[in-house]
Design goal:
The protein is an all-beta fold. The chain is 0% helix and 50% strand. The protein has no helices and 11 strands. Strands 2, 4, 5, 6, 9, 10 and 11 form a 7-stranded mixed sheet that branches. A 4-stranded antiparallel sheet has the order 1-3-8-7, with no helix packed on it. The termini are far apart.
Amino acid sequence: EVQLVESGGGSVQDGGSLRLSCSASEYDVSRYSMAWFRQAPGKEREGVASIAREGRTTYADSVEGRFTISRDSAQNNLYLQMSDVKPEDTATYYCAGARVFSGTSLTDLPYTIWGQGTQVTVSS
């Protein structure tokens, strides 16, 4: 069964760092596009970062320069390194994978495989 499982969420202070992981089963993290999304209470889900098959990355303006998306093909994991976090980064974070699309996208349209989410809470 194809499955994405996030981990690494938790509580962190304003200005701190956190690394989210997404472990893939029956899915090759290097074959297609993958991305991180987040959803805060009462808000729509938004794309945070995306990585293309060849490694090109795209970030939302709100996290550019603070977050880094990467993958480890050997471990078959996707990561989101979060630095200098802010209270507005508080949300449930989801990893997502495509089955056909190989570029980058911050919209959810290309992604058909989703994890269950991991909560990140940033306190001031």
